[in-house]
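To close the section, here is one more complete example, presented without commentary so you can practise reading it yourself. The ligand is iron/sulfur cluster.
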Amino acid sequence: MSDAVPTGDLEFTHQPTTDQSFENALAKARDGERLTVADGVELITTGTDRDGIDRRRKEQVLEAADRRRAEVVGDEVTFVANLNNNVTTACNTGCLFCNFKDRSEQFRSSYQEDHGGFTKTPAESREIVADAVERGIYEVCSVSGLHPALALDEEHRELLEASDREELNYRPPADYDVDPGTYCEQIRAMDVGGVHVHSMTPEEAYHARRGTDWAYEEVFRRLSRAGLDSVPGTAAEILVDEVREVICPAKIDSAEWLEAMEAAAAVGLDTTATIMYGHVENAKHRVLHLQRVRELQDRTGAITEFVPLSFVHEETPLYERGLVDGGASRDEDELMIAVSRLFLDNVDHIQSSWVKYGDSQGLKMLTCGADDFMGTILSEEITKRAGGDYGEFRSIREYADMISAIGRTPVERSTDYEHRRVVDPDADAVGPELGPKADGTPLLE
Ligand code: SF4
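Output:
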C-alpha cells in the first residue's frame, strides 16, 4: 500500500492561527486556569505573532511547566522495572512513520529469504517473561505488529476461518513459519508469577475484533480474564484524522481509537496516552491532540501518564519519500513536554522518553514539566530499528545516579504509580524491589 499516499504539498484544514495572545495564554498557564486550544497553540509556538521559536518566551513556558510539575508531583522522578516483549514484527499496515514492521508475506513458510523480523510463540514469550520476572521486573510491556494469523481467541479464529472477506487481513497460522497463537494465549503466557501485563493498544484491539460485531468492552474483558492488567495508549500518533490519513491511512481513525480506550477503562483497565509528533503535523494538530486526550481523561480518569514521543525519521518511508526532512527540533521537544504538562491538568504524570531523546536531553525534559523517566527496558526493538541510538537497557543504578545528579529523588514505581519506593543512590547494590520476585539485586549482573 502507501504508494498512493500523496507526496506533494499537504494542505491541512487546521492551521495554527489564533486570536489569543502569547502573554494572555502564559498568564492563564501560570494561574493554573484550564487552557483552550488557542492558548495551547500560543504557548507551543511561543506566539503566533512571530515566526520561529522565541527563546525568551520558550524559557517562560518551560518555567511555568516546571513549577506546575513541582506542585502536582513534587521532586520525585519515577521509573519502572520493566521488560519489552514484542511478539511479532509482521505487519501489513504500512504506516509511513514506522520501520518496526516487516511485511507479513515475508513470514510465510513459502518465503525463503531472510527478512530479519521475528515472531514468538506463546511458549517463547513465557520463557522470556519468566526469566525477567526472576530477575526482578515489575511489568512486561508488549506491543506488536498486526500479524495476519493473530486472532483474539479460538472463537474469533473460527469466525475468521469461516469468512472469505479478503479485507479482514487473516491467514491461518499454518501458512507461517512460526505460529504466534492468539492474543489471549500470548497474554496468558506472559502473565507469569504476578507480573503486571501492559499490552493491547487500541490498534491491536481492533485487529482482535476484526470481522465481528463485538464491542471493544467484550474484547478487553476477555483479555483481562486472560491476565491483561493495563493498556498502552500508543498507536495514537496524532488524533486528528487529516494527519492520520497521511501518515497511517490504514489505521483506525481518531474516534475509534478513543472508543477503544474508553472501553478499556470501562472494564477497569488503566491506560496511558501518547502523542507521536514532529512529522507532517502542525502546532494546531498537536494541541488538538492534547485536547482529545484531556477530554478522554475527563470521561474515564484512567490515564496514568502521558508520553510525548518525538518522531525518529531515519529509515522511515515518510523520510525516504521526502514527506519530511527531519524530526522535531530540541526547542519543539521541550515545548511539547511543557505544554503537555500545562494543558493536561487532569493527568498527573508526563514521561520523558530517554529512548527518543537520549540521556542528556531526556534529563533536561525533567526540568521542562516531565516527572517520569520510563523504564529499564530489558530489550527494545522498536526505536533501534527506526534508527534511534538510545534503545538500550537502563539499570536501576544508572537511574539512581542520573536522577540524583540533577538534584531530584529517584523513585521506583509500579505501572499505576500506586506503589513507590525511594531508591538510595548510595547503597552498594541497587536493584528493583517492587516486582513479584524482586529482591533488591540488580536486574543484570
Ligand atoms: S506502526 Fe504498528 S500498525 Fe503501523 S506499520 Fe508499524 S507495526 Fe504496523
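Once you have examined the C-alpha cells, check your reading against these statements. The chain has a mean pLDDT of 93. The chain has one domain: 29-422.
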